[in-house]
Amino acid sequence: MTIKLLGIGKTDDPALQNLTEVYIKRLVFYNRFEFELIPDIKNAKNLDENQQKQKEGELLLNKIAASDFVVLLDENGKQYSSEAFSEFIQKRLNSGLKQLVFIIGGPYGFSEDVYKRADAKISLSKMTFSHQMIRLFFVEQLYRAFTILKNEPYHHK
Predict the structure, then answer these.
(1) Of 20, 43, 117, 149, which residue is 20 to 30 A from 157 by alpha carbon distance?
(2) Which parts are annotated binding residues for S-adenosyl-L-methionine?
(3) Could you report the per-residue pLDDT of 107-128, keeping only the tens digit for each?
(4) Domain presence at residue 156
């Protein structure tokens, strides 16, 4: 199974980008992992919030196959402990899926079409974080999940 993380726009802060890359490099030792960023919408300032979400949604949906299991990283999603998230990952690994896709929306979230396509929603926190910071938090938690599954000492109870 391939795990893919989709996001909108580039990371402006080099420190965040570097830390994210540290965990991406670690992940490849556990599982196939892809990180794909869709460029920001051009002339977004001329669009209202819903128009921007719609355009971003179209771009995101074009990157998803019909057979993909799609998980939105969404503030209204289910919250997991690190151990429970590792169990979520293990169940998907055991299911025979070809690809598990996690999606981080743009600054205004997701379009209705993206919500309709989603198979699950996960919230990393009740707090709000920038979509750029969520990239780092997610790849760290995914790495942590794999170390839990392998009984490695990274995670402390």
Answers:
(1) 20
(2) 73, 105, 124-129
(3) 889 999 999 999 999 999 999 8
(4) no
Q: What is the residue range of 45's domain?
A: 2-149
Average pLDDT, integer, range 60-71: 97
- Which residues are annotated as part of the binding site? 73, 105, 124-129
pTM equals 0.95
